[in-house]
Structure formats: structure tokens, C-alpha cells
Amino acid sequence: QLKLVESGGDLVQPGGSLRLSCSASGFRLNDHAIAWFRQAPGKEREGVGCINASGRATNYLYFMDGRFTISKDNAQNTVYLQMSNLQPADPAIYSCASSGFALCPIGPDDYPYWGQGTQVIVSS
């Protein structure tokens, strides 16, 4: 059974950093692409970025300012989202999702497998 579990969400001050983890079971990350999405209350879900099976990471348009970095450890079967200089606009539920194959589709509807999400709060 394919399963994704996120962790690492927390309360941080503006300007702070967090590293979120997405642990996979039931499949191997060297076969699947994993994307990070986020959704704030009352807002549409938006894609943060994706890392494909080969390890190439792509940040989606809004997140190309260098504050968010996606990486993975195939040995640990875990994908990470390193977030720095967190801003008041960043609080949301952050979720990881698997496309079920090696490449990164763009839209959330193309990802059939989702974790439960982890909450990030940015507040002083």
C-alpha cells in the first residue's frame, strides 16, 4: 500500500526556517516523482515544487525566489522541503503527493497519492 507521511510543521517566527519531511512507504522514491503543495485557509491549493525519480527538482513559478528547496534521500525513502526566510504569507498546510510514476505533472489533479499534510505557522 502506497503511503506518504509528512512531518516537521511547526510555529516559526518571520525570517525563520523549517525543514519538512515526506516519508514514503509501499514504493521506492527512485521510481516516483514527489511534489509539495500547500493550501492556506480560504485559498486555492498551490504547487510548491516537485522532484522527479531521477532527483531533478523543479520549483513552481511562485517559489522560484530561492527560499524553498526540494531534495530527497532515496536510502531513507524521504523527500524534504527546506524553507528559509519564512514570511507571513507562507503559513499553510503543506502536503506531499506522488504522481505514481517518474515524472512531475503540474496540477494537483495529476497526483493520485497524498499525505495528510503538516501545518506551518509563521508568527512573531
Describe the structure.
The chain is mostly beta strands. The chain has no helices and eleven strands. The strands form two sheets. Strands 2, 4, 5, 6, 9, 10 and 11 form a seven-stranded mixed sheet that branches. It has a four-stranded antiparallel sheet with strand order 1-3-8-7, with no helix packed on it.
Write a short abstract of this structure.
By secondary structure, the chain is mostly beta strands. The protein has no helices and eleven strands.
What sort of overall outline do the alpha carbons produce when their principal axes are compared? Answer: globular
Rounded radius of gyration (Å): 13 Å
Distance between the termini: 40 Å
Strand content range: over 45%
Percentage of residues assigned to helices: under 10%
The string of secondary-structure elements, in order, is: EEEEEEEEEEE
Mean pLDDT equals: 93
| Strand segment tally | 11
Number of discrete helical segments: 0
Unreliable parts: none
Structural class: mainly beta
Largest sheet: 7 strands, mixed
